Amino acid sequence: MSDAISVSANGELASKRHPAGLYVLFFTEMWERFSYYGMRALLVYYMTKHLLFSQATSSQIYGLYTGFVYFTPFFGGLLADRILGQRKTVIIGGVLMAIGHFLMAFESLFFVALVFLVFGNGAFKPNISTQVGALYKAGDPRRDSAFSIFYVGINLGAFFSPLVCGTLGEVYGWHYGFGAAGVGMLIGLLVYLWGQKYLAPDNVMKKAAGEVAKKNAPLTGEEKSAIWALVILCFFNIIFWGAYEQSGNTLALWADGHTNRLIMGWEMPASWYQSFNPAMIFLFTPIVTLFWAWQAKRGKEPSSMAKMAIGCFFLGLSFLVMMMAAKATGDGKASLWWLVASTTLLTMGELFLSPVGLSLVTKLAPVRMVSMLMGAWFLSSFFGNYISGALGMLWETMSKDSFFLITAGLSFSAGLGIFAVLGPLKRAIGHGKKATVDV
């Protein structure tokens, strides 16, 4: 991984190399995300073209599936915090997801496969992210840059998966695409098992060594303030993901049915659109972190929560671009450049909100509750994804420009909401030890 991406969000260049455990988690998550996004790139097309579900039904199933993927991490976090520990829970999650991907080869087991994927992700998702934070002590300036590096791993898998799984599924057969996703999950699981010695002790190990407070220890006032701040931010996170997840739903349908994908006589597969966003993550991550470093030197870097609000505004602008595309083309097919422009803004919004939010959770959450609260953060994405599916049901019943305008309005409202509570939340958190946390 390039040192250029090792610039922390607060502008400090890491003075030491990152621990090897970060790269074990990087490649584990990369392959897990390869499997998840490879399957997701095919899901709507598989339901509408092979299983012959209506667009409305497919959208609802898509929203429920992607929603429950983010609902179960709360319980996976509880399981890890209180019983199994992060390591065992991650392994269980990886096994369940691999089974789910391979079950997609059988049409009659379609919904059973989705259940395996949902529960597997619930065990895996919160506990892999919290292990990144566990590699660093409190106050270590490398933590933010570690999450930037980790986030690149997520998007490396997300970039290649539509190209591999999407192409196999659309050209050679749906089951080849789903099978490739399952193989990716198995590779990620093997990487994780191999790299155990490089990871930090999980909470169960620390409890056994007496390093973590017992679960029944009362919360301090400082901890309660931090938890309430996370709860409030989760509300706005719901709105953000409700709009953002149109990228895998209605925007995927736009790419398939309303976009001219001919490039010098060759038609780009519609599923390749899903690679635009992760490719831009690679391009923009070093630019964004270096920009924050430049701002920090001048004392003008936004706080973590302010960055999240800015991310919502970028997302809103991305849907205004699509509104203009819909108005400009009417019932015809739009240029592919409209999707490129929209995805550029959408990606900037993601970079300002998602990795910043992950890092903030590991900073603010009490150690004995970190996986549960990371699960709560992903739980907010459950509601966001459900909203995404419900919103997508309007795709066929209203004009496309009106649809994109409504989605843009939701995004802008989340950004305005975060700015409205910014002062009170900073005052609530900014005392005691939490004063050192950039919020």
Give the count of helical stretches.
15
CATH topology: Growth Hormone, Chain: A
Radius of gyration: 21 Å
CATH class: Mainly Alpha
**Spatial order of the strands forming the largest sheet:** 1-4
Distance between the termini: 27 Å
CATH superfamily (homologous) name: MFS general substrate transporter like domains
**Average pLDDT, to the nearest integer?**
85
What does this structure look like?
This protein is mainly α and 439 residues long. Helices cover 74% and strands 2% of the residues. It has helices at 20-50, 55-71, 73-84, 86-103, 110-134, 142-172, 174-194, 203-208, 221-244, 250-257, 276-297, 304-329, 336-364, 370-392, 400-429; strands spanning 259-260, 262-263, 266-267, 334-335. Strand 2 (262-263) and strand 3 (266-267) form a beta hairpin. The longest helix is centred in the first third of the chain and has 31 residues, at 20-50. The chain is globular. Residues 1-15 and 431-437 have low confidence and may be disordered.
Structure at a glance:
The chain has a single domain, classed as Up-down Bundle (Growth Hormone, Chain: A). About 75% of the residues lie in helices and about 0% in strands.
